[in-house]
Amino acid sequence: MDYSIEHGKVKEAIEKAQCTGASPQDVANCIVEQLKAAGYTPSKVQLLDANVDPVEKPEQTRFIRIEANKPGDKNVHIFTFAVLRPGGQFKPLWLQSAVVER
Fold this sequence. Notes:
The protein has 102 residues and is an alpha+beta fold. It has a single domain, classed as TATA-Binding Protein. The protein has helices spanning 3-17, 24-37; strands at 41-48, 63-70, 73-84, 91-100. The chain has a four-stranded antiparallel beta sheet with strand order 1-2-3-4, with helices on one face. A hairpin with a 6-residue loop joins strand 3 (73-84) and strand 4 (91-100). Helix 1 (3-17) packs across helix 2. The longest helix is centred in the N-terminal third of the chain and has 15 residues, at 3-17. The model has no long low-confidence stretch (mean pLDDT 95).
């Protein structure tokens, strides 16, 4: 399967949804919903700080990392976003996606 094409479609869907929110968790929830709509089952959502460690406070979030599975596919799909805060609203910026083959 060509994961780059599949992940490209996911990226487009997330960008079209314009996931913004008052908190990083709002943004993560929006991304999770877009992944579900694309047929993924998110299994792990992490809010990470600038050192890529789990955040102590949500406002410290600089990255969102989501692991997801797809029915019939044993592989784990990982989606990573930077979190920007223009004008007081949190907004994701697609950084990368990866597949851990199992």
